[in-house]
Amino acid sequence: MKLIQDKHKKKSGRPSKLTDKVVKDAEKVWALDGSNRDVAGFVGVNVTTVDNWLRKGEAAHHGIHRDFYLAQLRGYASNRMDALTAIHKKIVDGDAHLALRKLQIRDPARWREAPHRQELTGRDGSPLPVADPSTVRFVIENHDGKEIMARDAVTDALHTNGDTP
């Protein structure tokens, strides 16, 4: 009998500001590339409250907090789709730089520029031949291109085997 009474018991305290309208408004802000801070300002709460709602929604299986969490995912997905569509259009038009830059700013881990890499190979992708191994040097350069360390391959091989030159 006690369980039934607890179910119908009213919650004490102030009602939550998280409503269906807030969920819809927040999704629109996220779809326009807004941050959690932007959502908080738009709906009139502190950014910590938005973060708490999202944390509760991630853990929940249903309810208003879950709806809020899913709204964030949908908003971000919508924003990324818009950016990818813009990139596709720019690629067709011949200029994808600005649209790609937007993705790099929004999600740098996923859209970062690949480091410049240059690989040297011989004919048909085979390794470059080395005529005299004693002439091979391993060089490490700093970002200005200044040599900060160089070691001869033969010296390294001798130290590895326990011999000294």
Low-confidence stretches: none
For the biggest β-sheet, the strand order reads: 1-2
The proportion of residues in beta strands is 5-15%
What does the average pLDDT come to? 76
Biggest beta sheet attributes: 2 strands, antiparallel
Overall shape: elongated
User: Count of helices?
Assistant: 8
Number of strands: 2
The proportion of residues forming helix, as a percent range, comes to 55-70%
Number of structural units classed as domains? 2
Helix/strand-derived class? mainly alpha
Distance between the termini: 90 Å
Spell out the helices and strands N to C.
HHHHHHHEEH
Gyration radius from CA atoms, angstroms = 29 Å
Descriptive notes:
By secondary structure, the protein is mainly alpha-helical. The chain has two domains: 16-111; 131-161, no CATH class. Helices cover 56% and strands 7% of the residues. It is built from eight helices and two strands; from the N terminus they run H-H-H-H-H-H-H-E-E-H. It has helices spanning 2-8, 20-31, 36-43, 47-59, 64-93, 97-106, 108-111, 153-161, and strands at residues 137-141, 147-152. Strands 1-2 form a two-stranded antiparallel sheet. Strand 1 (137-141) and strand 2 form a beta hairpin. Helix 2 (20-31) crosses helix 3 (36-43). It starts with a helix and ends with a helix. The model has no long low-confidence stretch (mean pLDDT 76).
Write a compact overview of the structure shown.
The chain has helices at residues 2-8, 20-31, 36-43, 47-59, 64-93, 97-106, 108-111, 153-161; strands spanning 137-141, 147-152.
Task: Please write out the topology.
Layout: H1 2-8, H2 20-31, H3 36-43, H4 47-59, H5 64-93, H6 97-106, H7 108-111, E1 137-141, E2 147-152, H8 153-161
